[in-house]
Amino acid sequence: MFQSTLTKLTYKLVFPLVLGMSLMACQSNKQNQHGAAHKSSMPSTQQDTLSYTKKVLKKISPYFSERDGAVDTTYIEISYPVFENPQMDTVIKSAILLEGESSIDQYADNFIEGYGNFIEENEVRYNLPWVKFTDVVVVFNSPQLMTLSNTTYEFSGGAHGNTFELIQVVDLENYRKLALNSFVAEDKMKEFTKIAEKFFRAEEGLTDTSSLEKDYFFEQGKFALSANYGILKEGLLLHYNQYEIKPYAAGTTSVIIPFDAFEALMTQTGKNYIKQLKAYYQ
């Protein structure tokens, strides 16, 4: 009865072999290959100095949809760097497993199973297949610091899919994620916000007195720092995702604040990091 219902709704249950289908590929990333693999909206930066492979995992739903002679199905694709150091791989996994999943396989399975549950529990005549892409890349690295970006696009019905990008800064000596206050002193954060706003306004083509209430989602029209930040060779990056401060159609916003612009506001730890970074790229 269950299978015939799916057939009537033009959904076909394929052989169990497809249920476990996963495609994996590895490629060398000793040189920067972000142009092809990185779907991030962040500014491009220098070549990688680390050696790693890029792994791609793809899983396909066993429920195929057929309409007007065209066959399609739900799938998920995850690409991420794999290092020889197991501690670094733990950092990479933490950048992907944001909802308590035990493994990247489970992360993929949850999406595929979610679509299957939707099909089983709802009588829909023409259902659009779902799709999810997760791409984790090394945006920047020096001997002391690494900036990682997880760009994920997901469509699971509705008017359009959604994309978000999560950025992490990692200390490579102890594999610890660094919060913004590792670089900017907590008691200097208000002053840093004012400096960041100047660069934001310049990036957006706004004057010092232009209102932020009409075209932005800042609370009470007051500029606020993004929780999404990264360290690049050029400076500190603030990244705002879709819907965060603008309508969906306006896309994302990225602002780079040169280190020299807020050096006086840095913690001693932050100064040490940036001093090492500058020395490395001289």
From TrEMBL:
Pfam families: DUF3298, PdaC. Gene3D superfamilies: Fervidobacterium nodosum Rt17-B1 like (3.30.565.40), Heat-shock cognate protein, ATPase (3.90.640.20). The keyword Signal applies. Residues 72-163 form the Deacetylase PdaC domain. Residues 1-27 form the signal peptide. This is DUF4163 domain-containing protein. The lineage of its organism: Bacteria, Pseudomonadati, Bacteroidota, Sphingobacteriia, Sphingobacteriales. InterPro entries: DUF3298 (IPR021729), PdaC (IPR025303), PdaC/RsiV-like_sf (IPR037126). Residues 187-260 form the DUF3298 domain. It comes from Sphingobacterium humi.
